[in-house]
Backbone:
């Protein structure tokens, strides 16, 4: 097998992988979802009080809060309206992003 | 790749997986590549955020931020100067932190020309600055041809105060000089314009000042619209806080402004003449001068952009963010500009590396003060709709009628601290 053949083979693999990943790509990625929050919650989620900091928040805590805001179980003057925009998949990605900060 | 033999490939493919190898091979070699140059013009909420996040996303980028003023003055907060509880100094937003914390090159100069063919920005002193990607965040200009009798000359004594600075001080001084029992008349433009709830926050905060110092006075808003942002919350707030002091006049009642007699401080509508003791004309607006001069604006006066990248649909390699761009249904606000800047920055990183920018996610969240311990808010979350081929709001709205207004005021103050830090530090 010549190098060109290998490259072609690898290119096909890569192309197929991109196509396979297509459905996930319909949702915004972690960075695009999470950095929008920083306007209120600070860069990478490190906020100045009294706005709660979300950097380093355990995933489960983040997800529970967002689910409660979404359902209206928990009241916030701002977050009830915002939480409803995100799918479960979006929230999972954001939870992972902020956990790491 | 040239040095890789079949055996090496197979070994790597089996140990890391072929995709892992492709991932490595496809990544640009950072040492060999010259740093890409991104120039940002406009040091407000949009431009400063774009410059900062470009560097956060890729510290190797060569990022230059050009702002003509020595210090940018924040429009959010400027209505509070009129209320009397904030001074002009507190609106200053120094850009120095962007240089010291993030390594952004700062240039204080006016850009006089953009050459999209040569990829060059020209400063007033003749200096030419090359770019691979250019981001413009030039804010708004007033339409001095939109209202008969209200031009640039008239604005020197009849303030619009829709850009923070001398105009804010002019309006403040006129309010201070007005007699008790006077009428403050504000004209609000048709949409779109900078800060949709701004005229109504202003009316509230002027009423706050008048209630304390000139309680027999009144504030009247002559509106070119028949409804406005956070309307129910504002109407309730005026009733609760300033009964009988604030009057909103819908376009339905008075029609449009026919002309303004600036010297006599009279606004003539289709049906009546309104005389004011202090007159504040907020005229219709358009994209900032530099964007229009570069022919980035369309017939509407605003700049059409592609929502995944905020790249101009008129001229490639130039991105327009903030008040100047068309990002319907996002309102023209500091928060929108901050959010758009991050999407634009992420897209520029993608484009510089040969990737197609992914779907955007944006937020707007804005507070309006009605009194020091009374605020209301509006927000929205936006994403791209493939079907509608534009941004759409997927959630959001006004804060509830029964929300704790003092608590919202606390968050409004916190909002200011946090967006300032996220944008300028």
Residues:
């Amino acid at each position: 097998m010549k190098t060109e053949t290998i490259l072609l083979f690898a290119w096909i693999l890569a192309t197929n992988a991109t196509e396979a990943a297509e459905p996930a790509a319909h949702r915004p990625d972690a960075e695009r979802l999470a950095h929008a929050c920083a306007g209120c919650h600070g860069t990478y989620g490190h906020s100045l009080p009294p706005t709660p900091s979300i950097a380093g928040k355990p995933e489960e805590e983040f997800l529970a809060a967002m689910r409660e805001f979404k359902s209206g179980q928990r009241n916030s003057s701002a977050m009830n309206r915002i939480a409803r925009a995100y799918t479960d998949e979006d929230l999972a990605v954001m939870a992972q992003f902020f956990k790491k900060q | 790749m040239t040095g890789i033999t079949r055996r090496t490939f197979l070994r790597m493919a089996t140990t890391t997986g072929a995709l892992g190898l492709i991932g490595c091979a496809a990544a640009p070699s950072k040492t060999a590549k010259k740093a890409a140059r991104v120039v940002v013009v406009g040091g407000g909420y949009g431009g400063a955020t774009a410059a900062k996040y470009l560097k956060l996303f890729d510290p190797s980028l060569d990022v230059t931020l050009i702002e003509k003023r020595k210090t940018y003055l924040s429009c959010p907060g400027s209505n509070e100067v009129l209320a009397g509880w904030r001074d002009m100094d507190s609106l200053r937003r120094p850009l120095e932190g962007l240089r010291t914390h993030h390594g952004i090159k700062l240039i204080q100069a006016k850009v006089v020309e953009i050459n999209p063919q040569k990829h060059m920005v020209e400063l007033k002193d003749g200096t030419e600055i090359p770019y691979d990607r250019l981001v413009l965040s030039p804010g708004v200009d007033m339409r001095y041809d939109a209202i008969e009798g209200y031009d640039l000359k008239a604005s020197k004594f009849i303030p619009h105060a829709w850009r923070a600075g001398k105009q804010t001080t002019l309006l403040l001084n006129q309010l201070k000089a007005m007699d008790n029992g006077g009428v403050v008349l504000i004209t609000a433009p048709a949409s779109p314009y900078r800060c949709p709830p701004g005229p109504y926050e202003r009316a509230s905060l002027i009423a706050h000042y008048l209630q304390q110092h000139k309680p027999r006075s009144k504030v009247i808003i002559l509106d070119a619209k028949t409804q406005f942002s956070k309307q129910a919350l504002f109407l309730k707030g005026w009733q609760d806080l300033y009964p009988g002091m604030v009057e909103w006049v819908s376009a339905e009642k008075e029609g449009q402004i026919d002309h303004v007699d600036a010297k006599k401080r009279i606004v003539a509508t289709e049906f009546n003449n309104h005389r004011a003791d202090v007159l504040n004309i907020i005229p219709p607006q358009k994209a900032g001068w530099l964007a229009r001069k570069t022919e980035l604006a369309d017939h509407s006066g605003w700049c059409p952009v592609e929502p995944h990248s905020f790249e101009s649909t008129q001229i490639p390699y130039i991105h327009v963010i903030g008040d100047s761009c068309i990002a319907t249904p996002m309102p023209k606000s500091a928060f929108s500009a901050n959010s758009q800047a991050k999407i634009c920055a992420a897209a520029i990183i993608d484009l510089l590396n040969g990737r197609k920018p992914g779907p955007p996610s944006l937020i707007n969240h804005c507070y309006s003060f009605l009194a020091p311990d009374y605020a209301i808010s509006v927000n929205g979350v936006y994403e791209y709709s493939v079907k509608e081929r534009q941004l759409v709001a997927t959630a959001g709205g006004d804060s509830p009628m029964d929300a704790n207004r003092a608590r919202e005021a606390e968050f409004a103050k916190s909002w200011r601290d946090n967006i300032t830090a996220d944008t300028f530090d």
